[in-house]
Amino acid sequence: MRFVYPRGLRKALTFSYDDGQYFDKRLAELLRSHGMKGTFHLNSGNLGLSGGNELYVSAEELQEVYAGHEIACHGVQHRNPTTITRQQMVLEIQEDRKMLEKLTGKLVQGMSYAFGNYDCQVIEIAKSLGIKYSRTVKDTCGFFPPADFMEWHPTCHHNNHLLELGDKFMNPAGFYELPLMYVWGHSFEFGRSGDWSVIEEFVEKMSGKEDTWYATNMEIYNYIQAVRSQEFSADGMTMYNPTAISVWVTTKDDLLEVKPGETCYIGEH
To answer: Which of 110, 139, 229, 234 is positioned for an S-S bond with 72, CB 3.0–4.6 A?
Structure first.
């Protein structure tokens, strides 16, 4: 028996882009038009307002620009987490969550570390304020889900062999369970240079795959956490799903959906 993604999909692909500059408009639409989803980590203190800062997506257009995607925290003022006081770090996260939740009408429980900097205290503060996951900038160049979602190391920055890794992800090695490709960066890296070719080629290449789940960071977090919460009988043949999310498994002969609260006979070790 092996776990798979929803509806029996073998792989998952997600994106994560920081800072909320207006180049996000083009990137969000590029992903959306190809049936993909991303997570956009925003500094709510930098959001543009009518007649205000034109470098950033405005608060008024937030829901339209990021429709179909996830909005998450990046610190209200994008301050370095490891050089400010504990109280200032609390405000960085708490005020960012409050503003983004007010603007979206949704819970905001994801984050990426500003400048990629964090330590044990930053993780503890973030978790105490309701953050469930946070992305780092440490590329793994691999496809394993994170061991610890508060240190979610991505597969690669889009400038780090993106197309080559995409080719490998088309047919990942069999030892990967729940293979996941996670791409991160900043949309201004495309916008300022005017060269969108790498991300456009990657999105075109990876779109429309029948074995791939295109999901936000939070959707992947929720699903994998549900997988890790499954309970089994002593012989491993019966599975109980104590979560609120359906979990999918493959056996030698079947694809099974184990619904919330359901006990299911798997029939194999």
So the answer is: 110
